[in-house]
Amino acid sequence: MDDVLRFALLGLGLGALYALTAHGIVLVYRGSGVLNLAHGAIGMAGAYVQWELSAQHGVPYWPATVCGVIASALLGLLTHLLVIRPLRRASSLARLVGTLAVFIVITAVAVKRYGDSLELVPGKLPTKLLDIAGATVSEDRVWLLAIAVVITVGLHLLYRHTLFGLGTTAVAENEGIAASLGWSPDLIAGANWTLGSALAGLTGILIVPVIGLSVSGLTTLLLSALAAALVGRFSSFPVTLAGGLVIGVVQSELTRFGSGVTGLASSVPFLFIALVLVARGRALPLRGTFLDRLPALGTGRVRPVPLVLAVVVALVLVSVSTPLWADAITNTLVLSLIILSIVVVTGYAGQVSLAAYALAGTGAFIAGHAAADWGWPFELALLAGVLGTVPIGLLFALPAVRTRGVNLAIITLGLGTTLEAMVFQNTDLATTPGSDGIAVGKQTLFGISISGVDHPQRYATVVLLLFVAATLVVANVRRGRTGRRLVAVRANERAAAALGIDVRAVKLYAFGLSAAVAALAGVLIGFRSTSVVFADFASFDSITALGLAVIGGAGFLVGPLFGATFAAGTVGARFGDLILPGLSDWMPLIGGVALVLTLVGNQDGIGREVGKGAARLLPKRPAPAPELLSEEPEPETHRAAPLALRVQGLTVRYGGVVAVDGLSFDVEPGRVVGLIGPNGAGKTSAIDAVTGFTRAASGTVRLGERDLTRLPVHRRAGAGVSRSFQSLELFEDMTVLDNLYAACDRPGPWAYLTDLVRPGRRPLPAHVLVAVREFGLRDSLHRPVGDLSYGERRLLAIARAVAAAPSVLLLDEPAAGLSDDETRELAALVRRLAEDWGMGVLLVEHDVDMVMSVCDEVVVLDFGRRICAGTPQEVRRDPAVRAAYLGDLEPEALA
Ligand SMILES: Nc1ncnc2c1ncn2[C@@H]1O[C@H](COP(=O)(O)OP(=O)(O)OP(=O)(O)O)[C@@H](O)[C@H]1O
Asked: Any transmembrane segments, and where (predicted)?
């Protein structure tokens, strides 16, 4: 029992440090919306400054401490001014990677200056042993707890009750409005960076007496601190403190009572938090969720002739290379494969995953055991490693189903670190007797030795060929239907689901494929020498790999090769050494600076520039055929399946607000039903509930004979209910044609596999051809959506919903912002959709003239309740409707 208390008290001290670290991260996040991956490094820098001044230059402790804190604060301010501020219009991925670049630069400078060793630093806090309720604990833990509580209360008061705190909250909630009230978002962000980083320095100085001073030491705290920040939702200081303390105590108790299971203590609290986050996440983002700018994407088109030439040249170079160069080529290619796995999951599918090395290690682990325990030959072990990692990749994808952005990045990093701590660092699992890893021996392929030790050139050849094969597979995916789905989900999950795309399946697929590519890299890393050593698979290296992916261009197939060149041990480093001997020692620093420059100068990476250059050099290929547009589709092929939508007693509640109250209506095939009412009457909520975006508290939704009430969004869309959005929600980084394809492609589950080898492009179905003609999109098919005029965008949004071949089409304010002429054309189009296509249309619209002219029936809502329904004439004359909505318009004006 004494032990329980003692370890709890010890844990409180540790937890206090987690909380203090987390507070600094929260400050920066609140002030500028950036997750600062350099937080630990900034704190470490402050601790080094303090140590150098006091231990080496004889400066007294407290002045040295003040200097350390100021150094960290300055580093934070510089990070804001030089990296984050220039990136304020960039994607949040670019800003995240910006902090990573700062992390790399600070770490590289620190390693150069202080080396890798661990310094033991005496602290100033008293370390007398205290007896608390029978348990003995060192006094410094109590002090740490007290300091954390005082700082938490201080921060809480500062952000609740001062002008600065209120300004920070205002900026965090809405930068535009805050700026119009006179708050400078820039100043606020700078102040928060400075304050948060000063706190990092102070925390660093407080921590080093407990854990020692080393370059990598503070990074390991990062994960627990991030977990505490997640608990406090990156905003509440008291909750963050509580989170940090609970994590500290649980870890401490597990260290004592966890029966020696490797990695249990560091993993369990994190896993718990990940579960909570996933549980409180949402399958689809809410309406109005801010859509981020995304890194640019390549087309995935591969030119066979230049590719074959490049491969032949590379093979010749490998065969004539010295062992050192062959090793450098292998290093470059395996790292490129790791980065390629990031291109799939982050570049294409938009999911920020920080688990590349954990998945690579899993591949090596499985293949290693297959070879060492069961004597499998290289090719079979490789296959086992790659395929066996896919289910683990799917496991990593589960959080992505319900969380996104920063939360997902932290969870995947945590899961990877858990895998590392519990499996890779577990000597029972990850070593074979007499070896420091899993002894797999020397490899042969078809009877020929390809041992990386004896024949580095041969090994590099195998790696090269597998790299090319993997790149071709990823290129196929990018060009195929699957790739379109990945990009659609990346661009806009809500719109993708509304078109029948199973967002969850797409994310699982991206993680699965990415895991397979990472595992391939892992096996090739592991089997290069005679034993698979897991020091090669440090989870935190995944962060660096993401940075390299961004340098190369996360959406481009050539990006990995360029990104990898900036890492130590690669071809780039060797060339650097040729130009300037010893340059490779500076590679991490050069990589970090290159990352900052790439981000600030061109957030889309080198791959984009290379793509543009290649397009200029290579002969132009004609644009893809205009998809059968010359052929006139057979008459009637575009008719919708005639199914009626029946909505009964639909109620939608948001907390205490009843947005829709027992609404019933039918939409028959071939008829247009208007749904009108004042602002806030519940019209969009009704569409959301019918299409599955909002859960209905009660009521039923049926299409034909089918009950849709419990189905998820994409299955309702698949059944025949399609919608447009008030805010359009087009896939901005696709062409018009690809927007339409994303809606009409209905690949079966096998397409996920066949696209890997044969992407194929189906012609547009007949009904989409008719839609292209009807909506006047014929000449715009190959234009990016961003180039369309406002009116064209509105038409495309409806055409895309029509391309999903619905029986019932729900249009949410389609005429908003259109001119009178455009509105008239749209009205005629809506009528044709009903009469010629046989669709049922539900039209939500504030343009009363339009509603009255096209609708067969109108339903009027007020405060969520149906106050009237009937023909336009009946509705127009209804006194309740005139009082609630049509107001004092004269009946003639409405005629
Ligand atoms: N996610 C939400 N959380 C809480 N309340 C919400 C949410 N979405 C909508 N509401 C509330 O529900 C009510 C109905 O809103 P809704 O947007 O459905 O109305 P609407 O008729 O479509 O309005 P408008 O014509 O302005 O688009 C409003 O009071 C709105 O404030």
From this structure: 7-29, 61-84, 96-115, 142-159, 193-215, 221-249, 261-284, 304-326, 333-360, 380-398, 405-424, 459-477, 508-527, 547-571, 578-600
